[in-house]
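Example record

One chain of 323 residues, shown exactly as stored in the release files.
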Amino acid sequence: MKINILDRMVMALVITTLSLAGISIAADGQREPQEEQKRDQQEKQQLQKQEQKQERVQKKSEQDQKQQQQRVQQQQQQDQKQQQKQQQQERVQRQSEQDQKQQQQRVQQQQQQDQGQQQKQQQRLSQQQQQKLISQQQQRVVQYRQHLEQQQALAQQNAVLLQQQKRIAQYRFQEQYLDRVRQQQIHLRDDRFDYARDPYFYTAPIYRYNRGGSYYETNEYGAKTLRQAVNYGYEAGFRAGKADRDDRWGSNYKDSYAYRDANYGYSGYYVDRSDYNYYFRQGFRRGYEDGYNSRYQYGRFANGNYSILDTILSQILNFQALR
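Predicted C-alpha coordinates for this chain:
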Protein backbone atom coordinates (compact mmCIF):
# COMPACT_ATOMS: atom_id res chain seq x y z
CA MET A 1 0.00 0.00 0.00
CA LYS A 2 2.79 2.25 0.92
CA ILE A 3 4.54 1.29 -2.27
CA ASN A 4 1.62 2.36 -4.40
CA ILE A 5 1.38 5.66 -2.77
CA LEU A 6 5.09 6.21 -3.31
CA ASP A 7 4.85 5.21 -6.94
CA ARG A 8 1.99 7.58 -7.47
CA MET A 9 3.96 10.40 -5.91
CA VAL A 10 6.93 9.60 -8.09
CA MET A 11 4.70 9.45 -11.15
CA ALA A 12 3.13 12.77 -10.27
CA LEU A 13 6.54 14.30 -9.77
CA VAL A 14 7.70 12.98 -13.11
CA ILE A 15 4.60 14.26 -14.83
CA THR A 16 4.99 17.63 -13.20
CA THR A 17 8.64 17.81 -14.19
CA LEU A 18 7.85 16.89 -17.75
CA SER A 19 5.09 19.49 -17.90
CA LEU A 20 7.38 22.18 -16.62
CA ALA A 21 10.05 21.15 -19.13
CA GLY A 22 7.53 21.28 -21.98
CA ILE A 23 6.41 24.68 -20.95
CA SER A 24 10.03 25.89 -20.81
CA ILE A 25 10.79 24.37 -24.20
CA ALA A 26 7.67 25.95 -25.65
CA ALA A 27 8.62 29.35 -24.21
CA ASP A 28 12.13 29.00 -25.54
CA GLY A 29 10.71 28.03 -28.92
CA GLN A 30 8.58 31.16 -28.97
CA ARG A 31 11.44 33.48 -27.90
CA GLU A 32 13.84 32.35 -30.64
CA PRO A 33 11.74 33.53 -33.62
CA GLN A 34 11.09 36.89 -31.97
CA GLU A 35 14.75 37.46 -31.36
CA GLU A 36 15.55 36.50 -34.98
CA GLN A 37 12.92 38.92 -36.26
CA LYS A 38 14.35 41.62 -34.05
CA ARG A 39 17.85 40.96 -35.35
CA ASP A 40 16.58 40.98 -38.92
CA GLN A 41 14.90 44.31 -38.37
CA GLN A 42 18.02 45.71 -36.82
CA GLU A 43 20.12 44.48 -39.73
CA LYS A 44 17.62 45.97 -42.21
CA GLN A 45 17.71 49.26 -40.38
CA GLN A 46 21.48 49.26 -40.42
CA LEU A 47 21.48 48.45 -44.14
CA GLN A 48 18.99 51.24 -44.78
CA LYS A 49 21.12 53.65 -42.78
CA GLN A 50 24.20 52.62 -44.72
CA GLU A 51 22.38 52.99 -48.03
CA GLN A 52 21.07 56.42 -47.03
CA LYS A 53 24.52 57.42 -45.91
CA GLN A 54 25.97 56.22 -49.22
CA GLU A 55 23.28 58.12 -51.13
CA ARG A 56 24.08 61.28 -49.19
CA VAL A 57 27.77 60.81 -49.85
CA GLN A 58 27.04 60.17 -53.54
CA LYS A 59 24.82 63.27 -53.82
CA LYS A 60 27.40 65.37 -51.99
CA SER A 61 30.08 64.11 -54.36
CA GLU A 62 27.94 64.88 -57.40
CA GLN A 63 27.15 68.37 -56.08
CA ASP A 64 30.84 69.00 -55.41
CA GLN A 65 31.71 67.87 -58.94
CA LYS A 66 28.99 70.06 -60.43
CA GLN A 67 30.13 73.08 -58.42
CA GLN A 68 33.71 72.39 -59.43
CA GLN A 69 32.69 72.25 -63.09
CA GLN A 70 30.78 75.53 -62.71
CA ARG A 71 33.78 77.16 -61.07
CA VAL A 72 36.00 75.90 -63.86
CA GLN A 73 33.58 77.23 -66.51
CA GLN A 74 33.32 80.57 -64.74
CA GLN A 75 37.08 80.80 -64.52
CA GLN A 76 37.39 79.93 -68.20
CA GLN A 77 34.84 82.62 -69.08
CA GLN A 78 36.67 85.15 -66.93
CA ASP A 79 39.97 84.18 -68.53
CA GLN A 80 38.40 84.50 -71.98
CA LYS A 81 36.95 87.93 -71.16
CA GLN A 82 40.26 89.04 -69.73
CA GLN A 83 42.04 87.82 -72.85
CA GLN A 84 39.57 89.64 -75.10
CA LYS A 85 39.94 92.78 -73.02
CA GLN A 86 43.70 92.55 -73.24
CA GLN A 87 43.53 92.01 -77.00
CA GLN A 88 41.22 95.02 -77.33
CA GLN A 89 43.61 97.15 -75.29
CA GLU A 90 46.49 95.99 -77.47
CA ARG A 91 44.55 96.90 -80.63
CA VAL A 92 43.69 100.31 -79.20
CA GLN A 93 47.31 100.83 -78.22
CA ARG A 94 48.54 99.86 -81.69
CA GLN A 95 45.96 102.11 -83.32
CA SER A 96 46.95 104.96 -81.02
CA GLU A 97 50.62 104.47 -81.87
CA GLN A 98 49.81 104.42 -85.58
CA ASP A 99 47.70 107.59 -85.25
CA GLN A 100 50.50 109.33 -83.36
CA LYS A 101 53.02 108.26 -85.97
CA GLN A 102 50.81 109.48 -88.81
CA GLN A 103 50.18 112.72 -86.96
CA GLN A 104 53.90 113.26 -86.52
CA GLN A 105 54.47 112.58 -90.19
CA ARG A 106 51.75 115.06 -91.15
CA VAL A 107 53.24 117.68 -88.83
CA GLN A 108 56.68 117.15 -90.31
CA GLN A 109 55.33 117.36 -93.85
CA GLN A 110 53.39 120.50 -92.99
CA GLN A 111 56.48 122.06 -91.43
CA GLN A 112 58.49 121.27 -94.53
CA GLN A 113 55.79 122.74 -96.74
CA ASP A 114 55.57 125.85 -94.56
CA GLN A 115 59.31 126.33 -94.74
CA GLY A 116 59.27 125.97 -98.48
CA GLN A 117 56.34 128.33 -98.80
CA GLN A 118 57.97 130.92 -96.58
CA GLN A 119 61.06 130.83 -98.76
CA LYS A 120 58.95 131.23 -101.89
CA GLN A 121 56.85 133.99 -100.40
CA GLN A 122 59.92 136.06 -99.66
CA GLN A 123 59.74 137.11 -103.29
CA ARG A 124 57.49 140.15 -103.26
CA LEU A 125 55.44 141.40 -106.17
CA SER A 126 56.19 144.74 -107.73
CA GLN A 127 54.13 147.80 -106.86
CA GLN A 128 52.43 147.64 -110.24
CA GLN A 129 51.43 144.00 -109.73
CA GLN A 130 50.16 144.74 -106.24
CA GLN A 131 48.01 147.60 -107.49
CA LYS A 132 46.55 145.36 -110.17
CA LEU A 133 45.56 142.75 -107.59
CA ILE A 134 44.00 145.41 -105.36
CA SER A 135 41.91 146.78 -108.25
CA GLN A 136 40.70 143.29 -109.12
CA GLN A 137 39.85 142.64 -105.50
CA GLN A 138 37.82 145.83 -105.12
CA GLN A 139 35.75 144.98 -108.19
CA ARG A 140 35.30 141.44 -106.87
CA VAL A 141 33.91 142.69 -103.54
CA VAL A 142 31.40 145.00 -105.22
CA GLN A 143 30.14 142.22 -107.47
CA TYR A 144 29.92 139.80 -104.55
CA ARG A 145 27.78 142.20 -102.51
CA GLN A 146 25.36 142.59 -105.41
CA HIS A 147 25.21 138.84 -105.89
CA LEU A 148 24.32 138.23 -102.23
CA GLU A 149 21.44 140.67 -102.46
CA GLN A 150 20.09 138.91 -105.54
CA GLN A 151 20.30 135.50 -103.87
CA GLN A 152 17.95 136.50 -101.06
CA ALA A 153 14.88 136.37 -103.31
CA LEU A 154 15.85 132.96 -104.68
CA ALA A 155 16.40 131.66 -101.16
CA GLN A 156 12.93 132.76 -100.07
CA GLN A 157 11.32 131.08 -103.09
CA ASN A 158 13.14 127.84 -102.37
CA ALA A 159 12.12 127.96 -98.69
CA VAL A 160 8.45 128.24 -99.66
CA LEU A 161 8.85 125.28 -102.02
CA LEU A 162 10.41 123.14 -99.30
CA GLN A 163 7.53 123.91 -96.97
CA GLN A 164 5.01 122.96 -99.64
CA GLN A 165 6.85 119.68 -100.18
CA LYS A 166 6.89 119.12 -96.38
CA ARG A 167 10.66 118.62 -96.44
CA ILE A 168 11.10 119.75 -92.86
CA ALA A 169 14.69 118.60 -92.35
CA GLN A 170 15.86 120.15 -95.64
CA TYR A 171 14.05 123.39 -94.79
CA ARG A 172 15.83 123.57 -91.42
CA PHE A 173 19.19 122.94 -93.07
CA GLN A 174 18.57 125.72 -95.61
CA GLU A 175 17.65 128.17 -92.85
CA GLN A 176 20.90 127.37 -91.04
CA TYR A 177 22.85 127.76 -94.27
CA LEU A 178 21.21 131.12 -95.03
CA ASP A 179 21.87 132.37 -91.53
CA ARG A 180 25.60 131.75 -92.01
CA VAL A 181 25.58 133.50 -95.39
CA ARG A 182 23.78 136.51 -93.84
CA GLN A 183 26.51 136.76 -91.21
CA GLN A 184 29.08 136.80 -94.02
CA GLN A 185 27.11 139.54 -95.74
CA ILE A 186 27.08 141.67 -92.57
CA HIS A 187 30.82 141.16 -92.09
CA LEU A 188 31.50 142.09 -95.72
CA ARG A 189 29.38 145.24 -95.40
CA ASP A 190 31.08 146.43 -92.20
CA ASP A 191 34.61 145.35 -93.01
CA ARG A 192 37.29 148.02 -93.55
CA PHE A 193 39.93 146.10 -95.43
CA ASP A 194 43.56 147.27 -95.31
CA TYR A 195 44.97 146.21 -98.66
CA ALA A 196 48.41 147.64 -98.00
CA ARG A 197 49.06 145.35 -95.03
CA ASP A 198 47.54 142.15 -96.36
CA PRO A 199 50.38 139.82 -97.50
CA TYR A 200 48.20 138.30 -100.22
CA PHE A 201 48.63 141.41 -102.36
CA TYR A 202 52.43 141.41 -102.33
CA THR A 203 53.13 137.64 -102.22
CA ALA A 204 54.09 135.93 -105.47
CA PRO A 205 52.13 132.90 -106.72
CA ILE A 206 53.52 129.50 -105.80
CA TYR A 207 50.78 127.17 -107.12
CA ARG A 208 49.15 126.46 -110.43
CA TYR A 209 45.80 124.68 -110.79
CA ASN A 210 43.55 123.68 -113.66
CA ARG A 211 39.84 124.39 -113.80
CA GLY A 212 37.70 123.85 -116.86
CA GLY A 213 40.73 123.36 -119.09
CA SER A 214 42.34 126.68 -118.06
CA TYR A 215 45.28 127.18 -115.72
CA TYR A 216 45.32 129.67 -112.85
CA GLU A 217 48.01 130.76 -110.42
CA THR A 218 47.73 131.69 -106.77
CA ASN A 219 49.79 132.09 -103.62
CA GLU A 220 49.33 130.28 -100.31
CA TYR A 221 46.50 132.61 -99.19
CA GLY A 222 44.48 131.87 -102.29
CA ALA A 223 45.26 128.14 -102.00
CA LYS A 224 44.05 128.16 -98.39
CA THR A 225 40.77 129.77 -99.47
CA LEU A 226 40.20 127.05 -102.08
CA ARG A 227 40.92 124.33 -99.52
CA GLN A 228 38.31 125.91 -97.27
CA ALA A 229 35.86 125.97 -100.18
CA VAL A 230 36.13 122.19 -100.61
CA ASN A 231 35.81 121.53 -96.87
CA TYR A 232 32.88 123.92 -96.38
CA GLY A 233 31.24 122.33 -99.39
CA TYR A 234 31.70 118.84 -97.95
CA GLU A 235 30.21 119.88 -94.62
CA ALA A 236 27.18 121.56 -96.22
CA GLY A 237 26.71 118.62 -98.59
CA PHE A 238 26.80 116.08 -95.76
CA ARG A 239 24.12 117.96 -93.82
CA ALA A 240 21.98 118.43 -96.95
CA GLY A 241 22.23 114.72 -97.84
CA LYS A 242 21.33 113.69 -94.32
CA ALA A 243 18.35 116.06 -94.38
CA ASP A 244 17.00 114.51 -97.60
CA ARG A 245 17.44 111.04 -96.12
CA ASP A 246 15.57 112.10 -92.96
CA ASP A 247 12.79 113.51 -95.16
CA ARG A 248 12.73 110.27 -97.17
CA TRP A 249 13.35 112.37 -100.28
CA GLY A 250 15.09 111.14 -103.40
CA SER A 251 18.84 111.68 -103.70
CA ASN A 252 19.61 114.79 -105.76
CA TYR A 253 22.46 117.05 -104.62
CA LYS A 254 21.80 119.57 -107.41
CA ASP A 255 18.31 120.16 -105.99
CA SER A 256 19.78 121.77 -102.86
CA TYR A 257 19.85 125.57 -102.64
CA ALA A 258 23.22 125.38 -100.89
CA TYR A 259 24.70 123.61 -103.93
CA ARG A 260 23.33 126.22 -106.33
CA ASP A 261 24.46 129.10 -104.12
CA ALA A 262 27.88 127.68 -103.10
CA ASN A 263 28.91 130.87 -101.27
CA TYR A 264 29.14 129.71 -97.67
CA GLY A 265 32.61 130.47 -96.30
CA TYR A 266 33.51 132.87 -99.11
CA SER A 267 34.69 136.24 -97.83
CA GLY A 268 34.96 137.86 -101.24
CA TYR A 269 38.76 137.97 -101.10
CA TYR A 270 41.79 136.20 -102.59
CA VAL A 271 40.03 134.12 -105.30
CA ASP A 272 37.28 134.71 -107.83
CA ARG A 273 33.79 133.75 -106.72
CA SER A 274 33.48 131.39 -109.69
CA ASP A 275 36.57 129.48 -108.51
CA TYR A 276 35.27 129.31 -104.96
CA ASN A 277 31.82 128.14 -106.14
CA TYR A 278 33.36 125.43 -108.32
CA TYR A 279 35.45 123.89 -105.54
CA PHE A 280 32.67 124.30 -102.98
CA ARG A 281 30.40 122.20 -105.23
CA GLN A 282 33.15 119.58 -105.64
CA GLY A 283 33.16 119.10 -101.88
CA PHE A 284 29.36 119.42 -101.64
CA ARG A 285 28.68 116.57 -104.06
CA ARG A 286 30.90 114.15 -102.14
CA GLY A 287 29.56 115.29 -98.78
CA TYR A 288 25.98 114.87 -99.98
CA GLU A 289 26.65 111.28 -101.05
CA ASP A 290 28.19 110.47 -97.66
CA GLY A 291 25.39 112.15 -95.72
CA TYR A 292 22.58 110.61 -97.76
CA ASN A 293 24.10 107.12 -97.51
CA SER A 294 25.16 107.55 -93.87
CA ARG A 295 28.84 106.75 -94.46
CA TYR A 296 32.29 108.38 -94.58
CA GLN A 297 33.74 107.43 -97.96
CA TYR A 298 35.07 110.88 -98.83
CA GLY A 299 35.37 112.56 -95.44
CA ARG A 300 35.37 112.22 -91.68
CA PHE A 301 33.73 113.63 -88.58
CA ALA A 302 36.01 114.91 -85.81
CA ASN A 303 35.69 117.49 -83.04
CA GLY A 304 32.13 118.27 -84.07
CA ASN A 305 33.05 119.12 -87.69
CA TYR A 306 32.77 117.41 -91.04
CA SER A 307 35.80 117.63 -93.32
CA ILE A 308 36.96 115.97 -96.50
CA LEU A 309 39.83 113.49 -96.48
CA ASP A 310 43.27 114.92 -97.25
CA THR A 311 43.79 112.50 -100.13
CA ILE A 312 40.49 113.48 -101.75
CA LEU A 313 41.24 117.17 -101.19
CA SER A 314 44.59 116.84 -102.96
CA GLN A 315 42.96 115.03 -105.88
CA ILE A 316 40.32 117.74 -106.29
CA LEU A 317 42.67 120.74 -106.12
CA ASN A 318 45.71 119.08 -107.76
CA PHE A 319 47.98 122.04 -106.98
CA GLN A 320 51.23 122.10 -108.91
CA ALA A 321 54.23 123.94 -107.47
CA LEU A 322 55.56 126.69 -109.69
CA ARG A 323 59.05 126.55 -108.21
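Notes: Residues 139 and 268 are 10 Å apart (CA to CA).
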